Amino acid sequence: MAPPQQSAVRNRLLRRLSGDDFALLQPHLRLMPTEMRQTLITPHEPVTQVFFPEVGYISVLADVAGNRIEVGLIGREGLVGASPVLLDSGLTPYHEFVQSPGEVLAIESEAFCAAVDESSTLRKLMLRYLQTKLIQARQTAYTNAAYTMDVRLARWILMCHDRVEGDEITITHEFIALMLGVNRSGATLAVQTLEGNRLIKAQRGRITMLDREGLIGVANGSYGVTEAEYARLIEGT
User: Fold this and answer.
1) Is 237 helix (H, G, I), strand (E, B) or coil?
2) Alpha-carbon span 36 to 56, nearest angstrom
3) Cβ-contact 129, 79 below 8 angstroms
4) Residues 183-229: pLDDT tens digits?
5) Residue 237: other Cβ atoms inside 10 A
6) Dihedrals φ, ψ of 168, to 5°?
7) 161 near 167, Cβ under 8 Å?
């Protein structure tokens, strides 16, 4: 398979690279389809590949003493496996798996690190991306501690909407419960609250966004901080 052309990639991080920096990665990038719940990063195991999502998104899951909760979300704005590779820790305690299937551009960690070591501008952009991930993690922690379930769900739906085409998000109540850190009945109640306000339409296995601006209002400032920092640090806006 021919290496991808920068003009054709959909990953926003790759598109922001200079031509020279993209050329360092290009020969090593390979397009890989993904499946629902496919593991990309296994906790406590060496990270031998990193992944630039093209279509779909990946959930970062913490599992402590059997209590599981989503602590991060990565789509076409980012890079899966960035922290353990760029910071030379080699592994992570988090499980990173496909929540919405599609495609990623995969690259061996060794080749990625060699390119980063060769180019100071590539390293700078990737470290800026790590900063946006740190902000996302802190914003998630704050939101989980300070807000009710319907606010947290509104933020999460907005984040998913940013990473898909169209207004439909494939999701089950089981995973909403996992994301919110509650039981399934609690997740159903949060969905019903948003649906009752005509912000979303919930059907089996999917949610359709009806009113994005209304959801932003419900999110009450919990959404937008990470997104603004990404625009500032990565896209210069």
Assistant:
1) coil
2) 10
3) yes
4) 888 888 999 999 999 999 998 889 999 999 999 999 999 999 999 99
5) 7
6) -100, 130
7) yes
Two tokens, residue 172: 């089950």
194's enclosing H/E stretch is helix 184-196
- Of residues 176 and 126, more confidence is placed in 126
Could you tell me if 164 and 100 are in contact, meaning their C-beta atoms sit under 8 angstroms apart?
yes
Tokens at 171, concatenated: 């999701």
Q: Which of 48, 39, 37 is nearest to 90 (CA)?
A: 48
The residue among 146, 145, 140, 162 whose CA lies nearest residue 72 is 140
Confirm if 139 and 71 have CB atoms less than 8 A apart. Answer: no
pTM, two decimal places? 0.95
Q: Are 14 and 80 in contact (CB under 8 A)?
A: no
Residues with Cβ within 8 Å of 134's Cβ and at least 6 positions away in sequence, in order, are none
Adjacent-strand bridge partners of 69: 62
12-54 pLDDT, tens digit per residue, is: 999 999 999 999 999 999 999 999 999 999 999 999 999 999 9
* Residue found by looking up tokens 């499980």 in the block: 95
The CA-CA-CA angle for residues 178, 57, 164, to 5°, reads 110
Q: Report which of 148, 47, 49 is spatially closest to residue 90, judged by C-alpha positions.
A: 47
Domains of the chain are 6-143 (2.60.120.10), 148-221 (1.10.10.10)
* CA dist., res. 152 & res. 220, Å (int): 10
Return the structure tokens found at 192. 């019903």
